[in-house]
């Protein structure tokens, strides 16, 4: 069993529009798709599509909270959200005809101390039957910067593996509890280390720095250029073949989901990287967020290159 944590659940709205996003004008939406979102729920769908058992944890409240539960039920994904008084947020992704993706993310309504304490109780029993736990995305207002650190400490107390995919203060604090894997992109890494990264050499240097903090697996995702994996076995660069990306939103989450699956199947680092690159690239080819077609994934997997970097 894999448990995904999404503290900032969302009803993700994908708006398809003609032409381009034009600030200061009125645009009619051609097509609107609602998805159970917040990064961790994208991870949950990917784990499910990969054929592993998954359960989703997090906060849900109000009308949107009920709607998210219904969408997960339709996908057959188990969930056990901690009920909160405030309304679950919505996030908007505008997919324009010109190929751009523009996101507006609501902050997430406040969670009280009592609700957080109830979540911690739910989390402790949910992780007991899991081998891998993923923690993704931002946190709603009202939670301390150390919230993910607290969760990672609990997972590690239980001797389980944990992947942390977040940014800003939540990443900074979460790292102090030393998760098994992190998956920053370049922007998140630059913000964390307070430095500009100009090329692959500098990206590797930054990844090694994090590995030296004790993180066993540091994955740095780089969009169409694939991802770097820095771990005890070595440094690897996994690259997808050239492909037509339709909706890249959720690619990072797809990568996290695939790594969680690979971890639960005890794959080697090289195998895990190739699989994660293939799954995330297949997600880019799909209109849905956190979804992929098995045929796309299999075809890409046969064309992923994994280079071992001597450094
Ligand atoms: N255009 C693309 N073509 C092929 N593969 C892609 C493309 N975009 C993303 N990917 C795959 O998805 C992985 C994760 O993408 P990316 O680096 O954009 O993550 P991210 O910045 O965390 O994204 P997000 O936050 O939107 O989920 C990449 O490492 C790559 O394997
Ligand atoms: O506010 P967060 O949790 O950091 O990000 C939320 C979000 O942008 O991330 C996903 C894509 O990765 C979307 O499904 C969702 O809307």
What does this structure look like?
Helix content is 38%, strand content 25%. The chain has a single domain, classed as Ribokinase (UDP-N-acetylmuramoyl-L-alanine:D-glutamate ligase, 3-Layer(aba) Sandwich), CATH 3.40.1190. It is α/β, with parallel strands linked by helices and 311 residues long. The protein has ten helices and 14 strands. The longest helix has 16 residues, at 113-128. The mean pLDDT is 96. The strands form two sheets. A ten-stranded mixed sheet has the order 5-4-1-8-9-10-11-12-13-14, with helices on both faces. Strands 3-2-6-7 form a four-stranded mixed sheet. A hairpin with a 5-residue loop joins β11 and β12. Bound molecules: adenosine-5'-triphosphate and 1-O-phosphono-beta-D-fructofuranose. Adenosine-5'-triphosphate binds at residues 185, 221-224, 226-227, 240, 243, 245, 248-253, 255, 277, 280-281, 284. Adenosine-5'-triphosphate (ATP) binds at residues 185, 221-224, 226-227, 240, 243, 245, 248-253, 255, 277, 280-281, 284.
